[in-house]
Amino acid sequence: MLRRRTAILVVTELFMAALLLSLVTHSSGVVHNDAARNIWIPPELTMPVQLQVAYNDERIFFRYRWPAKQPHVLTDLLRYSDGKWQRQLRTPVGSDPDGIYEDRLAMMVDDGSVPEFQRYGGYITVGADMRDFTGSGADAAHRRKYLPASRSDPGDWYSIVDARTLDAQRRAGYFLDLWHWRAHLSNPLGRSDDQHIAWYRLYDSGEPLSVGNWDADSGQPRWMFDPARDGVRALRWEDVAAGHGDVRGPYYLSAATAVPFDAAHEWREGDVIPGQVLREPSGSRDEIRVQGQGRWAGGQWDVTLVRALDTGHPLEDKVLRDQGVYSIALSVHRDARASRWHYVSLPLQLGLGRQAELMATRFTGDTPDWDRVDPLELTLFYPGQVSWKHLSSARHAGSKYIAKGVPVKYRHKERQLAQYGVEIEFDREIRRHWALSLVAGVLLVASFVFSVSLLFRHRGD
């Protein structure tokens, strides 16, 4: 009798332990921020963008509007602290706590020469172990976007094909045109930087929009604000931190107005000078302009970019023509987030006089009447650490559809892709959690069956 009671007690305790383990494994979450592993999940996994497109015989206009709680127009600062100048340049994991990272918008454009892009968008440019991926290491700082055919093994960063093949790919149009608007480093000049993606994320030819203001040899800035013109030599940290800078005042240095740095001046703790000096670009870098200037008001950015249909740089810019259909994809950085902590869109078909998902409005004159241009409401999503290598591998359940060329939008919505991005961030934890849940479930069932069998045997006796 004592042995039977002891057995029933042990089985009951085993049942309760298994039940508790099952409850714990099913009720505890695995999603949490972990800066040490470059993981930070945005509180909002999707965001809206409104897009309007218009064109005339010579130029094309893109008008973008998206919500942002406040504007972030500063990046790469030089700060006087502890009696010396220090560079504040950093890539935050998620939102920068001091709000020191500029808002950005980027758009990739293709004319059909990169067929994977019109089906899978920016996913094809994300290789394995990219910078700021979990476990990528410090040596991954140079790993940026590239196109799959530029590698003999698309999942291996170092397997770049030979220079002759890369040149042939470029001449065949195998590159993505990249428009890159930045609230600090391009908007004050009324410009958007012009880049392209081929074997790497490359700058177009010509002089850049900015030059560095940090003199590493002397450990101090090269230039400062002109006190006679701007009223200050430097900004104050308490004014710019946490995004409280007044965008109507001086917040950027221009080569046309900056003056040489005065090392003899009595600098104060918390003085701040921009780490880049803006200047007029040239060549292909100077092809994308901002109509007016990007404006933030009432919790929303309103930015209009304009470019010639044919810039005369066919190896760096996609030539756009009436009756053409093109693929585009957008990304937005907001809330002081850098690197991969952005929102992206699915690829979108743009028609110039042709039927497409988004029809550009043709107009006559110099500028479009936006009231007559139909807007398209897009949903951008957080992509996580989903690489092209992963999507093409057997670990991805949809790889068979990718092998068949089925476009991503035929099988997934933006919200699903955002959730999948989060799941990939915690793939290891989710698998471990699933295994614990499985073990707990088996123990729970086994202990329940065993305890019931003992109970009936006890009643029978």
How does the SSE layout of this entry go?
Elements: H1 2-27, E1 46-55, E2 59-67, E3 77-81, E4 84-87, E5 104-110, H2 115-120, H3 163-171, E6 176-182, E7 191-197, E8 201-203, E9 210-212, E10 214-215, E11 220-221, E12 223-224, H4 227-230, E13 235-236, H5 237-240, E14 253-254, E15 259-260, E16 271-274, E17 276-278, E18 288-290, E19 295-297, E20 300-308, E21 325-333, E22 343-344, E23 348-352, E24 358-362, E25 376-381, H6 388-391, H7 399-403, H8 414-425, H9 427-460
Parallel strand pairs: 1-24, 14-17, 23-24
Antiparallel strand pairs: 1-2, 1-25, 2-20, 3-4, 3-16, 5-6, 5-21, 6-7, 7-8, 7-18, 9-17, 10-11, 12-15, 13-16, 18-20, 19-20, 21-22, 21-23
